Amino acid sequence: MPQSRDSILPVRLRRLLLLPLSLSARVYAGILTVVFATAFYFSYSWYAQQRLGRIVHEILYKRMIIMHTADRIKESMLSDQVALWHYAATRDPSDLQELRGVGQATIKEIEALRQATTRTEILQKLDLLQPEVLLYLAESRKLVGVVDAQKLPAKAGLFKSARWARERTDRKSTRLNSSHAN
Description:
By secondary structure, the chain is mainly alpha-helical. It has helices at 11-17, 23-90, 93-116, 120-149, 158-181.
């Protein structure tokens, strides 16, 4: 059966439609075809939407974990600084214990962040951050050693420590001025 120029239906589809079926059977077959195609479209769209929702949820969940871990790193570094300066002012041994614990917590948080991400930019920044944190912790231990070597009055609070430091610098400047006068 040759295809006419005006025909837009392929040969096989025309043959299917020319089967010895009644007109009502052909209408029902057409309706079923449209219903099946529509149902397939909606079910596939629903499936794709559900899958996309799961993917987006997973991405957001991972990013939330990364953000919370980065926030904990920042908080632990700030806690470390607070404990360091509080120890320097009061020489409270509990601050020294907290200082040691917070430093290790910071390193653990960096490792947790390293495990939580696969992005190379974040991993590169973590590779830069970790040695800096280790250097900071080493420097803070040196500062604790300097504080321990000072002859700060026993159980001095923040204000007594500040007055002691001011008097100490006043004594140094007085000695410098007297040596320049000679």
